[in-house]
Design brief:
Elements (H helix, E strand, L loop, with lengths): L2 H12 L3 E7 L8 H10 L5 E4 L10 H12 L4 H12 L7 E5 L1 H7 L1 H11 L3 E4 L8 H9 L3 E2 L1 E3 L5 H10 L4 E4 L12 H12 L6 E4 L5 H8 L4 E4 L1 H12 L4 H20 L4
Parallel strand pairs: 1-2, 1-9, 2-3, 3-4, 4-5, 6-7, 7-8, 8-9
């Protein structure tokens, strides 16, 4: 059983839901990512999602796009992100870590080379926004070879037939995008999320985590009642950027993000059985 599957199973047995914070590796600084990962775990994170900086992050809203720009300016590249995971594993062997990014850096590195380096560092899964299920055979083979999961996105507009195709290729969990649009945009319609989660569950027994539009304890609590996990990204990244802009140190800004995540954890756990 993978570390991700084990974490979701343990949470289900406890009647709890997964909290998955997203940050962009290298933002606000190269040396800040690993300490922030540890702070997020201490605040209640069950899985860490690391964004791999990319020059054209097409699924992201302005907040995450700017974080990618800052991380690239700081010199963060795919191999640096893998090294951050390796450093994180020196103190934490339990918390699952997945990389979310785009195909180009992984293709450039080579699927086999990526899988070997990522597995050696202790990475658990990959989510590539722009590799469709019809073209995933090669990367899936390499990930499976080293015991890594491949996480897929499903959107509100994804037809039922395609949901089945995606579910057949996925492992670990399904990431349901709650909104039409980019990260950080709009307000979540709980009824729509519930209906689409039901569509997904008709095709797979994998856990379903919901992201995009979850900004605080209240929205996370609402979605956690419907899904197996919630993903929080733009709210954390934006808070760090705002606090630094207002004069806080990186450490203070990251502490504020961890405090927000702790509030979200408490909101989710309020309904735990």
């Amino acid at each position: 059983m993978s570390r991700i599957a084990g974490r979701f199973q343990a949470l289900a047995e406890q009647g709890r839901k997964a909290l998955i914070p997203y940050i962009v590796a290298g933002d606000p600084g190269l040396d800040s990512t690993v300490p922030m990962m540890h702070q997020l775990v201490a605040a209640g994170a069950d899985v860490i999602e690391l964004g791999v900086p990319f020059s054209d992050p097409m699924s992201e809203g302005p907040v995450i796009q700017l974080a990618h720009e800052r991380a690239l300016a700081n010199g963060a590249r795919l191999r640096d992100v893998i090294a951050m995971v390796r450093e994180f594993r020196e103190q934490d062997q339990d918390t699952p870590v997945l990389l979310m990014g785009y195909a180009n850096p992984v293709v450039h590195m080579g699927f086999a080379a990526f899988a070997d380096a990522a597995a050696e560092a202790g990475l658990d899964a990959l989510l590539t926004v722009d590799i469709p299920p019809e073209e995933v055979t090669a990367v899936n083979a390499e990930l499976a070879r080293v015991g890594m999961d491949n996480i897929f996105l499903i959107a509100p507009t994804t037809p039922d037939k395609r949901v089945g195709v995606i579910a057949d290729q996925a492992s670990g969990f399904i990431y349901y995008v709650s909104l039409k649009g980019v990260t950080g945009a709009g307000n979540i319609d709980a009824a729509d999320v519930s209906a689409n989660i039901a569509r997904i569950r008709a095709h797979t027994d994998l856990p379903v985590a919901v992201g995009f539009g979850i900004k605080d304890a209240a929205s996370a609590r609402t979605i956690a009642a419907l899904a197996d996990g919630v993903v929080v990204g733009s709210a954390l990244v934006n808070l760090v950027a705002q606090r630094i802009e207002s004069g806080d140190s990186q450490e203070q800004a990251m502490g504020a993000a961890a405090a927000l995540l702790k509030e979200i954890r408490q909101g989710i756990d309020a309904d735990a059985s």
